[in-house]
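Re: beginner question about structure tokens

> Can someone show what the tokenized structure looks like for a real chain? I only ever see the sequence side.

Sure, here's an example I had lying around. Input first:
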Amino acid sequence: MRWLAEQNLVAANAIIGVAKAAYFPQISLTGFLGFQSNQLSNLFTGPTKAWQFVPQVTQPIFTAGRLRSNVRLAKAQQQVALIQYERVIQTAFREVSDALIQYRKVREIRTQQELLVTTLQDRARLAYTRYRGGVDTLLNALDADRDLFDAELGLAQTRRNELLVQVQLYRALGGGWQQ
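And the corresponding structure tokens:
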């Protein structure tokens, strides 16, 4: 998208040059398929072998402001292309900023989820130790296992989300992403 906006801006600048070139006369020399035409072959002919050069010059005499309007139109199109280019750049900065913020948040969530899993592992270990010692019931140990499993599942989903955010950041930075 950024490349396309930049190309549109370059094209708009070229169109301004074409519109301004219409103010000047057009000179044409003729040739055909790599051979000189009859007009060019007679360039150095004549009794004195003097250079005879009669180019064709065309210039409109009255255009009723068409040339000036074409230049204004080309400048307006260039301004539109410039605004679109700026908008694409602003969007790119916003996407990168959003991806960085999201990555930081997901990383913090992953860190907290890892701490929760570590805590629940200790809880499950202690629950089974208490069960084997006859102090607690098997139901409390199984509850600790279930809570640990839920936390490990949440940690796996958080790690997946972290990887997805890294892909979004890579894409926002323009890392060779193909649509």
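Each token stands for a local structural state, so reading them left to right follows the chain. The chain has a mean pLDDT of 79.
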